[in-house]
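User: Earlier you gave me the apo prediction for this protein. Now I'd like the version with zinc ion bound, so I can compare the two side by side. Same sequence as before, with the ligand SMILES added.
Assistant: Got it. Here's the input I'm using:
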Amino acid sequence: MECIFSIDVEDWFHILDVPSMPDISRWSSMASSVEKNFLRLLDLCDQNGVAATCFFLGWVAEKFPHLVKEAGRRGHEIASHGYAHRLVYKMTPRDFLDDAVRSRQILEDLTGGAIEGYRSSGFSVTAETPWFFDALVQAGYRYDSSLFPAKRAHGGIESARCAPYRLGRNAASLIEFPMTVTRVFGRRWCFFGGGYLRLAPGFVIRRMARRVLTEGRPVIFYIHPREIDPDHPRLPMSLTRSFKSYVNLQGTEAKIRAILREFHFQTFSRFIAERGIELGQENNQHAEA
Ligand SMILES: [Zn+2]
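And here is the structure of the complex with zinc ion:
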């Protein structure tokens, strides 16, 4: 079993649900750090012979089309992070569909190939958005990596399956890759991205990853370009949010290097090509694993 390294390609100001987050009408006038940090992440991957899956925000792809092309040229998979970085549970099904289609079309125009994968902003799929999977199929996607099967500020479905699976019901062709969690002290935790990846010691993260692999599940790591840049600008926010968003940025790059060195990786689309046939079918996506 192998790991998957995923990058959510967005800028330093794309932080959800804080009052200081600028409106999309102001994004173009903001100083940007995505270019420098994304290319650095690609370099780290290349140095270790790792092909990543890059979930591009449609807005970023439109503003920095050369980043999409460069990632594709270096052999990384291009996928979609939606267009405007809106929370799924704050959109109507119609708005969601428009946003998901718009980003796919921008990325397909740039790559000249089909965009198969989607990840929502903030893993914001909840029990209140049962229309999400059908809308994704309608928007032309083949797989999704938006379910967070543990407690979380934005969304999260604690009872969701942990291993990748095929969705039944109307979304017959969609494959779901829930974010990787593992049980510690009776609770599910994700050590493989976000605040926990930045906070937990590297050896703990790698030990947890080995445990997940021996259970026969892929480990999905996720990172944002801003997380390897301790000097990026900060948005004003509450102390708690600030801790979650900015803790230990200075130690993250070294941690990523060690992870990329130790494990074997493949992209989501390679995983589906090699193992898609073995995946279990789930008729109720909210069922316990
Ligand atoms: Zn995001």
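For your comparison, keep in mind: The CA atoms of residues 195 and 243 lie 8 Å apart.
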